[in-house]
Amino acid sequence: MSKLLFLYTPHITSRIHTKTFSLIVTHSLSPLHFKYRLLSSSPLSTTQSNHHALSQIHSLRRSFSLRAFDDSPSDAKTQQEQQLNEADKTKFKTTDENYPSGEFEFEEFGAWKSFNVKLRMLIAFPWERIRKGSVLTMKLRGQISDQLKSRFSSGLSLPQICDNFIKAAYDPRISGIYLHIETLNCGWGKVEEIRRHIVDFKKSGKFVIGYVPACGEKEYYLACACEELYAPPSAYFSLYGLTVQASFLGGVLEKVGVEPQIQRIGKYKSAGDQLTRKTMSEENCEMLTALLDNIYADWLDKVCSSKGKKREDMEKFINEGVYKVEKLKEEGLITNIHYDDEVIAMLKKRLGVQKDKNLPIVDYRKYSGVRKWTLCLTGGKDQIAVIRASGSISRVRSPLSLSSSGIVGEQLIEKIRTVRGIDDFVRFGPLILYAPFSFKNDMSCGHFGWLIIFESGHQLFKFSGIEVQSFTKCIESKRYKGAIIRIDSPGGDALASDLMWREIRLLAESKPVIASMSDVAASGGYYMAMAAGAIVAENLTLTGSIGVVTGKFNLGKLYEKIGFNKEIISRGRYAELLAAEQRPFRPDEAELFAKSAQNAYKQFRDKAAFSRSMPVDKMEEFAQGRVWTGNDAVSRGLVDAIGGFSRAIAIAKQKASIPEDRQVTLVEMTKPSPSLSEILSGLGNSIAGVDRTLKELLQDLTFSEGVQARMDGILFQRMEGLSYGNPILSIIKDYLSSL
Fold it and tell me: What's the DSSP call for residue 171?
């Protein structure tokens, strides 16, 4: 029996009168399908105040919203569509052109603002002190995280890179930017975002110079946006074209006696193929070919536009297989051939620095510590919350995982509820701690404070999981005018994705919510995004992949080879469904397993159709586990607009009725909080780095269970350019990413 307790407090010092309601919950296969009825129990006292409390409770019961539950059967499509809110049906019909562009416009500071900047620089923190005429240097290489980084964390952070470009454009102490661009280990979405900021920075009139000792297509895509580009005589240039690769373990597992029994729903859902197949499927080949064509075409367009070349000439150059740096200079693809010290000498001459003096420079890490406040770049009173979600999706955090690894459903939900403004309740052992509170006169609940606790067995759920409309209106936060969900995830646990989808959708009912996609927001990542009021993606963001995959390993032959035996005693026809890895599925077990996966897929697809105001049949055409680039996703209604984080901000302002020229304050809900190992790693301790890697591998091995809404691990990694490592390790990574 479940209980819903309403605790009524007329005044802070008065007695608490209670009325109890029983809430009978019947679960169906879907975690969002419930049937319920309210039964009143013992009446309240008949005092005047209690009569008032009773009327408040009845009013609350009448306003209990059905939107928190999905009560309709899965096959009742017509009835379900009739119940959809008309506003939801038209929400995603706005075309890309109707949204503000969010394009950066550089405006010179006036005399008063320039004076304020100088004044603030005088009282700035010591680490914000920079010499006038300094050059900002940033080394762009390796991995680039979509999360904020603390000063102790190693590696690059995309938000901080972008902020540095904006700050440097307005900072009177910065003369220009000198970029070292080497092999990048990130996706095309982040490269697009950085490239956009390079182009925007040039509007300030300051120089941006690139230096490329090692350069492939992705690096040149970024570097060609620089005003000048230099390379050493011995530079590694490999502008030979793009590839996508896939590894298959089917034959290997067959030899060792392991039989993967995989259920993947969607003909393009290739996650799990590397475990079961020995070659690429036709559907997977079709999908990867389309993705590759899109990325290659976009690369040619951007490079040709930057260098003033014809597409035919650029394709001819690539097909010639040029490897000599001199040829690149002849073709105008680089400015000149110089070593780093020669470029530094050129900058010194350009800035009037004497030859025997050092060029005043400030590096990425130090400049990231310069506050926007120091440069008078802080926003206005209106606040927009930013919730960042990066990595693979899991429902709960494992004991071995680090604070910065992956998306943990329960933690992200807490952040969403904080933005929504629903109060949390603190539980200590068997006690429930609560505090009475009051509301303003204009609130529908009057002067009364209500604490609601949903109890089921021994587990306590926070109130915000259940929507009581009048109560929610009383306590929903008006601090934030809107929210941006920044997603960089190939997916993961389907249940966690669904729970986050629900919370984002509830948030979107109270304020504008915009999903901003980075490198990838596919499968479970798209599941989250589709709950938002609008979705913004880069041209080359990988998204879609509406499908599910699940499975188990039959280790019977392997056990036989090594002499291992396992016996199970069970009760219940399907008790051994996932427990008996020493044998294959029985026919009835295989049928149940397939139906369960199919049911999960239908939920995903139907919610995608509902969220995007699209008929289910139409959504089925774009689903089937297929991955799309952002550009293709827009034309199919899966995404609303093409752009970066700045465009997501502009759309959030538009939907929140904030004037376009008014600045807003972005409030990061995910603050960088390094663990001890990250601090040690930042100080150069290699053992900490090894420890982190081992922990993440163990986490992937141990906690990837259940139905997965995950994009193919091979596709995700190969598109990010991880083709330079050990091939055996790459196969292992591919294998782990699809478990």
Answer: -
CA-CA distance, 182 to 186, in Å (whole number)?
12
Q: Which residues contact 15 (CB under 8 A, 6 or more apart)?
A: none
**Dist. CA 368–CA 87, nearest whole Å:** 42
Q: Considering the entire predicted model, what is its pTM?
A: 0.76
| The two three-digit tokens of residue 25, written as one number | 């919950």
Q: How far apart are CA 526 and CA 518, in angstroms?
A: 11
Determine the Cα–Cα distance for residues 509 and 486; give it in Å rounded to an integer. Answer: 18
pLDDT classification of 422: cutoffs 50, 70, 90: low
Positions of E strands within 275-326: none
Start-to-end CA span in the chain (Å)? 37
Bridge partners (DSSP) listed for residue 9: 449
Please determine, for residue 676, whether its predicted confidence score (pLDDT) is greater than 70: no
Q: Which residue type occupies 518? A: S
Q: Label residues 212-234 b or e (16+ Cβ within 10 Å = b).
A: bbbbbbbbbbbbbbbeebbbbee
User: d(Cα 627, Cα 289) in Å, to the nearest integer?
Assistant: 11
Q: What is the DSSP letter of 126?
A: G
Quick one: which of 187, 250, 209 has its CA closest to 391?
A: 187
Backbone φ, ψ for residue 214 (5° rounding): -140, 125
Interatomic CA distance for residues 437 and 458, integer angstroms: 26
Whole-angstrom distance, CA of residue 23 vs CA of residue 228: 68
Mean pLDDT of all residues in the chain? 77
Task: Summarize pLDDT for 597-623 with one digit per residue, the tens.
Answer: 899 899 999 999 999 999 999 999 999
Give bridge partners of residue 384 from the DSSP assignment: 482, 666
The two tokens of residue 297 are: 């075409």
Helices (H), 461-519: 469-475, 494-510
**CB contact set of 524 (below 8 Å; sequence gap of 6+):** 393, 489, 490, 491, 492, 493, 494, 496, 497, 708, 709, 710
Beta strand 156-157 pairing with 144-145: parallel
Overall size of the chain counted in residues: 739
Q: Each residue of 436-445: pLDDT tens digit?
A: 433 333 333 3
The more confident residue out of 2 and 475 is: 475
Query: Of 142, 267, 274, which is closest to residue 736 (Cα–Cα)?
Result: 274
E strand or H helix at 592, and its extent? helix 587-611
Contacts of 340 (CB under 8 A, 6+ apart): 180, 211, 213, 232
Helix (H, G, I), strand (E, B) or coil at 352: coil
Residue pLDDT, tens place only, 692-709: 444 444 444 333 455 666
> Which is catalytic among the residues 153, 247, 270, 523?
523
Burial of 381 (0-12, 13-18, 19+ CB in 10 A): exposed
Residue 108 in this model has a pLDDT that exceeds 80: yes
Task: Determine the residue type at 727.
Answer: P
User: How does residue 432 score in pLDDT terms, banded at 50, 70 and 90?
Assistant: very low
User: Tell me, what DSSP letter sits at residue 586?
Assistant: P
Per-residue CA distances from 17 to 11, 41, 48, 448, 471 (Å): 11, 14, 12, 12, 18
List, for residues 506-553, the tens digit of each pLDDT value.
999 999 999 999 999 999 999 999 999 999 999 999 999 998 888 888
Can 438 be counted among the known catalytic residues?
Answer: no
Q: Is 371 helix (H, G, I), strand (E, B) or coil?
A: coil
Task: Round to whole Å and give the CA distance between 552 and 218.
Answer: 37
Helical segments of 613-726, H only: 616-622, 630-635, 645-655, 676-682, 686-703, 713-719
Of all residues in the chain, the percent with pLDDT exceeding 70 is 69
Residue 397 pLDDT > 70: yes
